[in-house]
Amino acid sequence: MNSHYSVAVIGGGQAGLSMSRLLRQRGVDHVVFERDRVGHEWRTRRWDSFCLVTPNWQCNLPGYAYQGDDPDGFMVGADVVDFLEKYAASFDPPLLEGVEVTRLRRTRAGVFALDTSAGRTTADQVVIATGPYHAPAVPRIAERLPAELVQVHSSQYRNSGQLPPGAVLVVGTGQSGCQIAEDLHLDGRQVHLAVGSAPRAARRYRGRDTLAWLDEMGHYARGIDEFGDADEVRLRANHYMTGRDGGRDIDLRAFARDGMRLYGHLRAISATRLDFAGDLAQSLDNADAVAEGIKDAIDRYIDSAGIVAPAEARYVPVWRPDSSPSVLDLAASGISAVVWATGFHRDHRWIEVPIFDGRGYPTHERGVTGCPGLYFLGLPWQWTWGSGRFAGVAQDAAYLSSRILDARRQRFTDEVSWLAGTPTETYPQVEWWAAA
């Protein structure tokens, strides 16, 4: 590890590697710190049947796109790891695997000091590409469950056989919760599912993948500045669907029709008694309304563009709750395990730079923070829907790489001006440049 770099990139996932590819292309000396190894999150925090929800054709990183023979398919976890490893091998980034950055601060000299598990270094500019999913979020209410009950977070779930025999309670119906509930259901387990407010979308409509229609409609090119409620947009749950077995809808009503037990959101726990809110019907109706609203937009686009596309009947609910169950007794229901599909917390405690709002979210404009030389890359809705995905991170990386180059040019100009009349010993910021 060098004592100083022009740019330090923290995180060696798709975001960090994308930035490295562009910096190398533009001749900028830099380093990429990866706490574990390339593809670690995809290796260790996904269940066995996991696959992407976005189609393979959306996997398009700088200088490297999906090269398989199934662009409309959905890569499984091992394929995603292979994709990232081959991407890294394609340009040989200056990658330090197994090196964790434990502290980041800005010095009075205007450079960034990084404490790492391999020692200390400095950098003129820093790109934080660690994503938003750092620490599993398990609500404190989980502490009230009986000690003998097995509890796992969605990031720890692998397959049904990992859990003891018996029924399973899944809490949360974002993409992970719905897909894990389906995985358990298909394996013959009795599943109890606490349903949240996440919306859903149809996998296909009128002859194409819904995401293909939305891409053609320009939906994924919309910047966050086009929304009046940008903060709320960034916090919205993703629409649930799946790429499993070639891709299909996730219909919680169909699960219930086939024996899964659905409840409203979990409200309280007392001994072995769980209390749920009475909002199940409303949550299901709202999720369906979002899915049908997307279809409405696709219909309007097809009509306005004069596209010939097959007609398709609209969704008809296959099950409705007669009443929303409000109580579940763990012992009587035979529940032996709980899967908490309740998301993640951000953990930026190692960043000692005042750039966060009251909720701990980094304040930025397209990834550019208020601290000169400090950037974020790979955040959900950093600029577009695809910012936190394979689909849009390349665009964000290109934008930030241009800003990094602009800052380097400005720094060079300022330093030359200072050097013209100021000895370097009184201007320590430029000693590295003078030595070069």
Could you characterize what this model shows?
Helix 1 (14-25) runs parallel beside helix 3 (77-91) and helix 1 (14-25) packs across helix 10. 29% of the residues lie in helices and 20% in strands. It has helices at 14-25, 40-44, 77-91, 175-186, 210-216, 230-235, 252-257, 280-305, 330-333, 393-421, 431-435; strands at residues 4-10, 30-34, 60-61, 64-65, 95-97, 101-106, 112-116, 119-128, 135-136, 150-153, 167-171, 191-194, 204-205, 208-209, 261-263, 266-270, 273-276, 327-329, 335-340, 344-345, 364-365, 368-369, 374-376. The model is unreliable at 423-436 (pLDDT under 50). The longest helix is centred in the last third of the chain and has 29 residues, at 393-421. By secondary structure, the protein is of the alpha/beta class.
Q: How many runs of DSSP E, i.e. beta strands?
A: 23
Note the total helix count.
11
Q: Strand content of the residues, in percent?
A: 15-25%
Write down the overall mean pLDDT: 93
Total discrete domains:
2
Global outline: globular
Summarize it:
It is built from eleven helices and 23 strands. The chain has helices at 14-25, 40-44, 77-91, 175-186, 210-216, 230-235, 252-257, 280-305, 330-333, 393-421, 431-435, and strands at residues 4-10, 30-34, 60-61, 64-65, 95-97, 101-106, 112-116, 119-128, 135-136, 150-153, 167-171, 191-194, 204-205, 208-209, 261-263, 266-270, 273-276, 327-329, 335-340, 344-345, 364-365, 368-369, 374-376. The strands form seven sheets. Strands 1, 2, 5, 6, 7, 8 and 23 form a seven-stranded mixed β-sheet that branches. Strands 10-19-11-12-15 form a five-stranded parallel β-sheet. Strands 16-17-18 form a three-stranded antiparallel β-sheet.
